[in-house]
Amino acid sequence: MRGFYLTRTEMGTILETIRRQEIPDKILMKAMKRSGSEKKDLPTIFSKLLKATEGSFGFSINEIATLGNQLEYASFRSTAVQNWVKRDIKEWIGAPQLGKKYAIEQAAILFIVEDLKNTHDFESIRLLLKFAFNNPADRNDDLIDPLAFYTAYSQLFEAIHTKVKPTKEGIRKKAMELSSIFSDLTEKQKEDIEKLLISAALSVQASFYQSLSKQYLEDVWR
Fold it and tell me: How far apart, in Å, are the Cα atoms of 52 and each of 101, 102, 135, 180, 213?
């Protein structure tokens, strides 16, 4: 991957840091050092993130798309995200919760949708959102926290991605380990969440293969 980018685990850490009303400077410095970038090279959304220390923090659709486009193997379009929130997942994202801005948990849901759409249709995506996150206007009724789910499957993807031939049992074992953070679930719910983590992580892996395929094709036409 060329230039500045964030892994999904880094993105999850940044969002969690902001949610704690702390500045995500360390994780951004790490990403900049990796790519040889400077602050002046980054989209302006990062200047906003580095000032996120007080009160509730919200994102516009354009900011979510800009931030999402810093993720490896992701391709966000503001128009597509607008369609998601107005039509495809309207019931499960809800209205902007901070004036005209979307809350961190809502941004995490949109990142999840971007990853899942690599391998799932919107009917399947809506079923997952309904099962895991329930009423978008009330985060207290969520089976699991959207940001925690995003970070967990991001870590699972990175574990899969570093192995040439990950086994089905190895993936399941790692998913079980990561799902331990969801401590209030029944055994059946925990098993279902493990399966959803695996499905989401493999969807990101599919995006990696798509990106790699395009890269080889583009190399031929250069």
Answer: 14, 15, 27, 30, 38
Which single residue is written with the structure tokens 């970038």? 37
Residues with Cβ within 8 Å of residue 102, at least 6 apart in sequence = 58, 59, 60, 61, 64, 85, 93, 96, 110
CA–CA gap between residue 87 and residue 43 (Å, rounded): 28
pLDDT at 1: 45
pTM above 0.85, yes or no: yes
What is the structure's pLDDT at 66?
Answer: 96
Cβ neighbours for 16, distance < 8 A, ≥ 6 positions apart: 147, 151
User: Sorting pLDDT into bands at 50, 70 and 90, what band is 137?
Assistant: confident
- What is the chain's length? 222
Select from 39, 83, 86, 47 the least CA-distant residue to 63.
Answer: 47
Strands annotated E in the chain:
none
| Alpha carbons 19 and 13: distance in angstroms, whole number | 10
Residue 79 to residues 82, 108, 129, Cα–Cα distance (Å): 5, 18, 21
Instruction: List, in sequence order, every residue forming a beta bridge with 102; answer none if it has no partner.
Output: 59
pLDDT of res. 48: 87
C-alpha distances out from residue 148 to 20, 100, 181, 216, 219, Å: 14, 24, 8, 34, 38
